[in-house]
Write a structure and sequence with these properties.
Length: 491
């Protein structure tokens, strides 16, 4: 039995947002990026870590997955409900910060999870969804998984219809390594890959203003998706499926279902995940051969007929015994010389035995590390529980400074197409850290003390009254409350 985690970002069409994924947060969901903020114009490049916000009561997200555990990450200052496999699921009252829901011990089959936000209407309450992580399992022992990438120019891919090469976009698939991609605006154009030996497959491509719907056929089982968005996102997970039989041949095909020439569909690559054999090699991956069809885009000069293997293990080299034994012996010599130097230094020390009050050492911190749910499946970092304590008003006059309000959320275009989220390439390991959000207002209040009159000529009764006021001053200072975690929506 071998297990691994897959991370699906909130920008993937695999996550279905309702009533929409892009628009005013008061009526649905809106994508937000740490360096770009909210979208201001169609096709704006998305920069930074992403999260989807909503302040609409009843807004929901839905995800179907195959695995034995599920974890939903995000932040919220409102209540919400979760259903797992169409049954109401218990949400613990206390969860690590950043974790909205988790469920472990599921049967290794297909499951569905839905989270519904319940913020109070016309309030500053919001819910943000960041990513989903689910645990995959295969019923065999392996040294790990190899990631085999079929770039869009690989001649193993079979194209039909009209596809064109696109290049020169410095953020596709990302700004660190821009690469060519292919695009079609002809309805029913398709691209397919036939392979064997894999246990999971992903289809990756950009999402941009003007993209529309598509179908995915995996072994003749068809599903429909929507990659429309207001953002320009360089690389997303357009489709992901695990639980494949590595002993069988599989065919995955992507079909453009936008029937107007102004609707587009783009492809970066197909990625197959295959188990390593006991000798460190991967099972045969591609069973398709031959040249691409006449509808294939022209391959760039760097094209190759072989897929790119990532993280494959090379176990066929002979061991160089001398290269191993030599450094070991040298290390032992250095260690012995260091020990001799320490002994010589200790003999030359003048030990002070006349200390009157020996100082006790600090107590040893031998407490076990705090265990967090999900730790047993290898989650990345342990979320921190943040506890906001009440703000106690000081007994002196003054006012707390009020921070600048958060940047206003731009208005969405008047027409918002029905969309289904964005995504980032699935991670076969730990979920990335949650983005920090600096534009979070805090509740401020003023406090004052009762004015004290001047004392010039008073009788005894007035003097007693003034002394009583000094002893028991009256104040109207507020006690304060925990700051909210989200900016108020300007909509």
């Amino acid at each position: 039995m071998y297990s691994w985690n897959t991370t699906i970002d909130d920008t993937s069409p695999i996550v279905l947002f309702s009533p929409y994924s892009e628009g005013p947060v008061q009526n649905g969901w809106a994508g937000w990026f740490s360096d770009s903020g909210f979208v201001t114009t169609g096709g704006e490049q998305a920069v930074g870590s992403s999260i989807h916000y909503t302040s609409f009561p009843g807004a929901s997200l839905y995800l179907q997955f195959e695995g034995t555990a599920i974890y939903l990450y995000g932040t919220t200052n409102c209540t919400y409900t979760v259903t797992l496999d169409s049954q109401s699921a218990h949400v613990p009252l206390s969860l690590p910060f950043g974790l909205l829901f988790y469920q472990e011990g599921l049967t290794p089959t297909t499951h569905s999870v839905q989270l519904t936000a319940q913020p109070q209407a016309s309030s500053t309450q919001m819910l943000g969804f960041d990513q989903a992580v689910f645990t995959n399992t295969i019923d065999q022992d392996t040294n790990g998984l190899a990631t085999i990438v079929y770039e869009n120019w690989n001649d193993t891919l079979q194209y039909t219809g009209n596809w064109t090469n696109q290049s020169g976009v410095d953020w596709i698939p990302n700004t660190q390594a821009p690469a060519p991609y292919v695009e079609t605006s002809q309805g029913l154009s398709s691209v397919s890959l036939t392979f064997a030996g894999g246990v999971a497959v992903a289809v990756n491509g950009p999402r941009n203003w003007g993209h529309w719907t598509y179908n995915i056929s995996l072994d003749d089982e068809v599903t429909s998706w929507n990659c429309s968005t207001l953002w320009g996102i360089g690389d997303t997970v357009l489709f992901y499926q695990n639980g494949l039989d590595p002993t069988k041949q599989h065919t995955v095909k992507m079909i453009d279902t936008g029937m107007q020439d102004y609707y587009k569909l783009s492809l970066n690559d197909f990625t197959v995940y295959a188990p390593n054999n006991s000798n460190g090699t991967t099972a045969p991956i591609s069973s398709a051969s031959g040249s691409p069809s006449s509808a294939s885009p022209t391959a760039p000069s760097a094209s190759s007929g072989s897929p790119t293997a990532v993280a494959a293990v090379d176990a066929g080299k002979k061991t160089n015994v001398g290269a191993i034994v030599g450094p070991v012996i040298a290390g032992m010599v250095v260690l012995i010389l260091a020990l001799l130097a320490v002994l010589w230094w200790r003999r030359r020390r003048v030990v002070q035995w006349d200390i009157e009050e020996p100082v006790a050492p600090f107590p040893k911190n031998d407490r076990a590390e705090i265990w967090v749910k999900g730790q047993e499946v290898g989650l990345p970092h342990q979320p921190v529980v943040r506890v906001y304590e009440p703000i106690v008003a000081p007994a002196v006059s003054g006012k707390r400074s009020v921070p600048a309000p958060p940047p206003s959320e731009p208005s969405a275009p008047s027409t918002v197409s029905e969309s289904i989220p964005e995504g980032s390439r699935p991670s076969l390991g730990q979920p990335r850290p949650l983005p920090s959000h600096s534009q979070q207002p805090s509740i401020s209040g003023s406090q004052s003390t009762a004015p004290q009159g001047s004392v010039q000529a008073v009788d005894v009764n007035q003097l007693v009254e003034l002394i009583a006021q000094r002893i028991d001053p009256r104040t109207t200072a507020p006690q304060g409350e925990a700051p909210p975690r989200y900016p108020a929506s300007p909509y």
